[in-house]
Write a structure and sequence with these properties.
This protein is of the alpha+beta class. It is 40% helix and 28% strand. The longest helix has 36 residues. Keywords: ATP-binding, Kinase, Membrane, Nucleotide-binding, Phosphoprotein, Transferase, Transmembrane, Transmembrane helix, Two-component regulatory system.
């Protein structure tokens, strides 16, 4: 190896990322013997001033032991490498990767050590940046104003239903046409971005790999960088589908509350008017008023529970389902003391459910008792290798089709302007948020069997 690995008049040697690397030679005592032009450009130091000076003096204090270990290894005849920071002429710390290669004389002794200095900004920093993108808890992207995707991280690819960023990039050739459910939202986003340079909390519906729709919220910034003449947009994305669905459900619940309240107050007001004009039997009118107020209070309690559920945490914890069944049965019998509710359960059966899951069982028991003419109600818990099943069976008149569809997730919630609808809506939310499923079947010879299945 010569003292001049590159000619100052020719092309510099460059790394894989196109950034010039520097070279130096050290004597066996660690003093600087030679530096090239790239070394001078990198550090801002004069080669005359640095000649003969111990290189370790230019290494940042915390990295000196690291350098000396690597240099000692090279001085003993071994190739070595280390990541250190050297001080530029202005005191700036320059992170570099230093590769050390010993040169030996004819007798085999090391005569000097040649060093290759690669600025970490070219390779290591790029890799570190890419690593941060991959562990980011949000989707990160770089796109262009004409709708091309330059890069995304795995998190965003997963949001869109793809196994890899490459798969997602290939699928979205034109963001306006391929990603946005409403293409005009892309135009609205670009108008705001071009006007302000930054857009925050921009929400839109996106098409996923399976053709489903997800609500995404995007924060983006317009850069001065360009790709094929188009300016680059960078930013991050969060999936807000659950929040949007929760907001929609709360809006539905509010409409149900207003509807039920208006109906109940209309009946109460009518009965009060009849009493005032002595046109109704006082006892019957009072009974009607009390029934309506009791029903209204029960509705308010259900709606309060549902509101707390929709706004509350969604984390599950492992619980003994048999205990929850017994708790639900006891709660229901406090209200329906004469009801017959039998239970068949194992000693224990554990599954992960959200807080308050027992309300789902209690609501189904209450619904079966209220709508049956002296019905027999039973709860059976079974467990296999993959799931726990809870059967709530009754001998009542059967569950109307709209309520079956609601429990199974087929019916829309909007037509459920009645008390049973709110209760069954609560049941479904508790089960779904516990990663469970619900099915409904006819009981023999009459009645209904509702089955909740929870993964173990």
């Amino acid at each position: 190896m010569t003292d001049r690995p590159c000619d100052s008049r020719g092309d510099r040697q460059r790394d894989d990322h196109g950034v010039a690397v520097a070279f130096q030679s050290l004597d066996t005592d660690g003093s600087v013997r030679f530096v090239d032009d790239e070394w001078v450009a990198l550090t801002g130091r004069d080669r005359v001033d640095i000649a003969g000076r111990p290189f370790v003096e230019l290494v940042s204090g915390g990295d000196r032991d690291v350098f000396e270990d690597a240099f000692d290894s090279a001085a003993d005849g071994d190739v070595d490498s280390c990541a250190i920071a050297v001080r530029a002429s202005d005191g700036t710390a320059l992170p570099i990767t230093l590769d050390l290669h010993p040169e030996t004389s004819s007798d085999g002794a090391v005569s000097r050590v040649h060093c290759r200095l690669e600025p970490q900004s070219s390779a290591t920093k790029l890799e570190a940046s890419e690593g941060l993108l991959e562990v980011a808890p949000v989707g990160v992207f770089r796109t262009t104003t004409d709708g091309r995707v330059l890069s995304i991280n795995h998190k965003l690819a997963a949001m869109l239903g793809y196994d890899s960023p490459q798969g997602a990039i290939a699928a979205y050739n034109d963001l306006e046409k391929d990603l946005y459910v409403e293409p005009q939202r892309r135009a609205e986003f670009l108008d705001r971005l071009l006007e302000n340079g930054i857009v925050e909390e921009f929400e839109y519906r996106a098409l996923t790999a399976s053709g489903q729709q997800r609500w995404l919220s995007m924060n983006a910034r317009l850069l001065d960088e360009r790709s094929d003449g188009e300016r680059i947009i960078t930013g991050f994305t969060r999936d807000v589908t659950d929040r949007k669905r929760r907001d929609q459900q709360l809006a539905i619940l509010e409409r149900i509350l207003r509807h039920n309240l208006r109906n109940a107050l209309t009946v109460i007001q009518g009965q009060a008017e009849l009493l005032r004009w002595e046109r109704a039997d006082a006892k019957d009118a009072v009974e009607t008023i009390l029934d309506r107020t009791d029903s209204l209070l029960q509705q308010a309690e259900k709606e309060r529970s549902l509101t707390e559920l929709l706004r509350g945490p969604t984390e599950t914890t492992r619980r003994d389902i048999t205990i929850l069944v017994e708790t639900a049965r006891a709660d229901v019998l406090e209200t329906h003391a004469d009801a017959a509710v039998s239970v068949e359960i194992p000693e224990a059966a554990h599954a992960a459910v959200i807080p308050g899951f027992e309300r789902a069982i209690a609501e189904l028991l209450d619904n079966a008792i209220r709508h049956g003419d002296d019905p027999t109600v039973s709860v059976t818990v079974r467990e296999d290798q993959s799931a726990i099943e809870i059967d709530i069976a009754d001998t009542g008149p059967g569950l109307p089709e709209i309520e079956r569809e609601l429990l199974c997730g087929v019916a829309d919630e909007t037509p459920l302007f009645h008390g049973t609808g709110v209760g069954l809506f609560l049941v479904r939310q508790l089960v779904v948020r516990s990663n469970g499923t619900i099915s409904v079947a006819d009981n023999e010879p009459e009645g209904t069997v509702v089955t909740i299945r929870l993964p173990t």
